[in-house]
User: Fold these one by one.
Assistant:
Number 1:
Amino acid sequence: MRPKIICHMVSSIDGRLLADRWTPPASGIDPDIVPRHYAQVGTRLEADGLMVGSRTMAEFRGITRGEPHLALGAQPRSLPHVANKTEPRVAVVFDRKGRLDYSVDHADGDHIVAVLGHHVEARYLARLRAKGISYLFAGEDGNDLDAALRTLASVFGVRTLLLEGGARLNGAFLQAGLIDQMSLLVYPGIDGLAGMPSIFEYQGEASTRPAEGQVLRHLATKTLDGGMVWIRYAVEEDALPAVV
Ligand SMILES: NC(=O)c1ccc[n+]([C@@H]2O[C@H](COP(=O)([O-])OP(=O)(O)OC[C@H]3O[C@@H](n4cnc5c(N)ncnc54)[C@H](OP(=O)(O)O)[C@@H]3O)[C@@H](O)[C@H]2O)c1
């Protein structure tokens, strides 16, 4: 069994990802409307933790993203490591090449679990163990998301996880058909520039359709204070796949 995955994101009205580029709140609206609603709604979703890509994780205090730590010719590693976990929730980071360096063992109070590829250096793994960081493996190249989720359920006991971006990791989960629900906050602001990332950015050929075979069923819409709109959808299999 894998955990239930709710992709929880906030976007501008043009579906863009980078909050520091959006127009500011209108006069009289709480200037912290974006982080406040994002955190409060995240809590209401009652998950066992969150999952992020390595670029998003590097925005947490005490975590930096650098060069990969790979030993390609070496004996591949696959045994998960469970550090002394005192925090109730997990912060799972998909860091297939072992790029992240940690001066902390938690991300805003959540226990860090790094998801790696088999060829990450032994010395890098030893550093993670010394820092109190848990890790597990997602296949040879670190891209087997389904395997990672099953290990998270069986070894860490998680049942529901929030997928909190960024766009590249969301895109990989979308393409793998591993998102069960969407929780989207639409902030009343605009980015407006062509080419800025949206909340899904699967890295593939132009002919690829990462959401193919999936449809959205509306569950609920709520307007929050400041004009933020919270929309929830279930992601279902398309009952009528396209005829080729
Ligand atoms: N609006 C929101 O709700 C929201 C939420 C979260 C983040 N953000 C913003 O999003 C931005 C970062 O997003 P991002 O898309 O650039 O980065 P990201 O998704 O956070 O991280 C992407 C990186 O994760 C690594 N990775 C590991 N496994 C992967 C896999 N299976 N598929 C894809 N990547 C994988 C890759 O690095 P390697 O190739 O080195 O392995 C990849 O470059 C930040 O500016 C952040 O502030 C916004």
Number 2:
Amino acid sequence: MLYKFSEKIYYTKHRFTYLEPSIGYVKGKNFSIMIDAGNSKEQVETFFNDLKEYNLPLPMYVILTHHHWDHSFGSIYTNLPVISSSKTSDYLSEMAKWNWDEYSLSERIANNIDTKYSVDILKKVYPNINDINIKIPDIKKYGDFSMNLGDLVVYFYSNDNSHSDDSLLIYIKSEKLLFLGDSHSKSYKTIPLSFDKTKLYNYINFIKDINFDYAIPGHGNIMTKHDLVSYLENEYSKI
Ligand SMILES: [Zn+2]
């Protein structure tokens, strides 16, 4: 199911149960882009069917917000060139070398590389773990960059935050909209999940300086800048 934010911006409904993140879509005059690849073949196929139903052109590129499986494992099924930060590409290259079997998954939980929660959902999405096929991004970008889609420019900000150090925050200035990925979320590598105080402080200041009205998170509903900043400041006050 697609939500329409504006004539140029659409995004899919996220599903907590399958850790399906929202996939973003930015329609340009010359070409369109897809933000995140989703977690599976099924999510990619549903997204492409939704685009067809809405008479929207297929995207020309996929841009990943960060390397986590739920945002990146759909890449192979898009048959599109994938763009990511250099760090995301490095993480995915590393993960492509990992063994994907019961024993290795349990080991990674024990070593805090992954959480039981994430692995349990991964196994639900991939009942046959051998089906996992990690695509290494075709184009890796260093630092910030932008893409001109013809009638609008998309800005990509490289960001090191509590959740992951390889994030891209994706800003569409003309629509005053920011795609967050999971950049506003806690780290899952700590028990309990937590924010890093310095990183959160820097993150709040970073997004405060961006002129946006709405933010679309990977998992959750669209929110106003005010609500997002209030939430993060409240979290900061608890540390
Ligand atoms: Zn994530």
